[in-house]
């Protein structure tokens, strides 16, 4: 199924429900790691994928035929570049192969990094206002 063929969905639960049970389990586990690492973040669907926001966009994730994409923005990728080098990826994304365990501890640290980064940016903006 191509990304453009995926139906629209309003919730992360509806998104996850579209996939086979084994992939659903991985997506739920990823979601739980994100929630535990960013308990104040709000869940939403953005760019047709599950997303979390806290003082702006935090992280996104999506399932594909052979991998789970994790999108912690380019700063999240850059900050953990060495640890993520074992995975396929790009400037703002990393691909975790389906069928291999997700690196929960690494994901937790990336999400916590993004939380701190977003909160610092929000704090700087408030301080800059006259």
Automatic annotation (TrEMBL):
Pfam families: DUF1801. The lineage of its organism: Bacteria, Bacillati, Bacillota, Bacilli, Bacillales. Residues 24-114 form the YdhG-like domain. This is DUF1801 domain-containing protein. It comes from Paenibacillus glycinis.
